Amino acid sequence: MKKIFFVFGFLIFANSLFSQDAKLINKNALMKTVTLLSSTEFGGRLAGSEGFDKAAKYMASEYAKLKLKPAGDEGGFFQYFHTEYNDIVGPCKLNLMNGWEISNEYLIGKHFSVRGFSGSGDVKANVVFCGYGISQPENDYDDYQNVDVKGKIVMIFKQLPSWKLKEKDWNSSLRYRSEIAYNHGAAAVLFVSKPNDKNPQKPIGSVMDGEGKQIETLPQLQIDISVANDILAKNNIKLKYLQTKIDSTKKPSSIATATIANVEVKAKYEKEKKTENIIAILEGSDPILTNEYIVVSAHLDHIGTHANEVMYPGANDDASGSAAVLELARAFCSQKEKPKRSIIFMLYACEETGLLGAKFFAEHPVVPLQNINSQINMDCIAFGDSIQIGNGKSVPELWKMVEDIDASNDKLSVKDTWNGGGADGTPLHEKGIPMAYFVTKDSYGHLHLP
């Protein structure tokens, strides 16, 4: 909780309204909001879902109680736009087979997860390991060159190689690599983390698949490394060995396994689904400076619920930031002396699908862009042992201000920073608007887990 208080302290100080006062911030109210937003009532808050819309209405009602000015469409708090939407309705399963009998049965949310833009299907076929799932003959690299994957289940690394060929980046999203597999005849795709990486990723819920064609008949899962090794067991080989061989030679090492798997996913895809950013304004008290704006933002969306049994609550990512935005609004509204500049309290949709809500706002601002003088973005601020202030190399003056404030308080920030924006702050940063991005260090240990 101290980490969130540090964020509050900075914002309060930066606006020169009042000294840091713990009474302004109600930690019980903060936790109540985080707990509520991450509850089953909102179903994981996938943008476009009934649960997200319910969460958006709740936050808008809290804005209304504070008598904040609605800054969305048609005099309301919502700024509407459309997004791709894929509801993983289930059933979803992954089994290894011995003839018609199940030899290994795996649990969704533990041994595997469903990719956010998975297609539907029920596939029983041999598994073929295809390395990184890259097919670039022009660069003398093709994981599909010496294997037949027609009608098969393809297993590939989720992450791209850490090395390059001909000094070229791979630039190959998960969605694009799924399309490559499909174009080679694959009936399903299993993504798995690279076992030789420092902290191999567990199967997570995610809708960050990148741009590309939606293949509605191609089931796609992320599996645990242990499951991949079960698949390779009949070939007497381990995933670590295959990664080592590929990375050391920079050549494909694809193999057809002797294992038959059964993959089933049922999903409902919509090309365009209506969703919304939630926007409110506290107008500044100075007759001139009121036309200048500071954006205080977080994202409200998360991953949703899969197969009606695995919910991704998103307490840290980013119910924590959303709760902080609301509590800051309450703190500022409770003061007799209002800030001289206006504050936009922003809750974005579709961060998880690629900052789409933030990008939409940057292209369709509710106030002139030239009147927005800074943005404070908060994402994953509840878990971890210290605070990072991102984008500090792009805005060193703002970063130093944060460091100075922290030095005289709880000393929670670390020196690590970067340039080029960060999370939902990036689109406005790319428009030339200074931004500080608050995130706890090592906050991703439980990222996108049920």
Number of domains: 2
Rounded mean pLDDT is 88
Major beta-sheet overview: 8 strands, mixed
What pattern of helices and strands is seen along the backbone? HHHEEEEEEEEEHEEHHEEEEEHEHEEHHE
Number of separate helices: 10
* CATH topology type of the largest domain: Aminopeptidase
Indicate the low-confidence ranges by residue numbers: 1-10, 12-20
Which percent band covers the strand fraction? 25-35%
Q: What is the level-2 CATH architecture name of the largest domain?
A: 3-Layer(aba) Sandwich
**How would you sum up the global shape?**
elongated
- Assigned CATH superfamily of the largest domain: Zn peptidases
- How many strands appear in the DSSP assignment? 20
CATH top level of the largest domain is: Alpha Beta
Structural class: alpha/beta
Distance between the termini: 22 Å
Radius of gyration: 24 Å
Helical proportion?
A: 10-25%
Tell me briefly what this model is:
The protein has 450 residues and is an alpha/beta fold. 25% of the residues lie in helices and 26% in strands. It folds into two domains: 2-84 and 271-440, Aminopeptidase, CATH 3.40.630; 91-265, Glucose Oxidase, domain 1 (3-Layer(bba) Sandwich), CATH 3.50.30.30.
Report on this structure.
There is one protein chain. With 450 residues, the protein is of the alpha/beta class. It folds into two domains: 2-84 and 271-440, Aminopeptidase, CATH 3.40.630; 91-265, Glucose Oxidase, domain 1 (3-Layer(bba) Sandwich), CATH 3.50.30. The chain is 25% helix and 26% strand. It has ten helices and 20 strands. It has helices at 2-14, 27-37, 50-65, 174-183, 225-232, 239-249, 315-333, 356-363, 396-407, 426-429, and strands spanning 69-70, 78-88, 93-98, 101-106, 112-114, 121-129, 135-136, 141-142, 153-157, 188-192, 220-223, 255-265, 267-282, 293-299, 304-306, 310-312, 342-348, 372-378, 387-390, 435-440. The strands form four sheets. Strands 1, 2, 13, 14, 17, 18, 19 and 20 form an eight-stranded mixed beta sheet that branches. A hairpin with a 3-residue loop joins strand 15 and strand 16. It is elongated. It starts with a helix and ends in a 10-residue tail after the last strand. Residues 1-10 and 12-20 have low confidence and may be disordered.
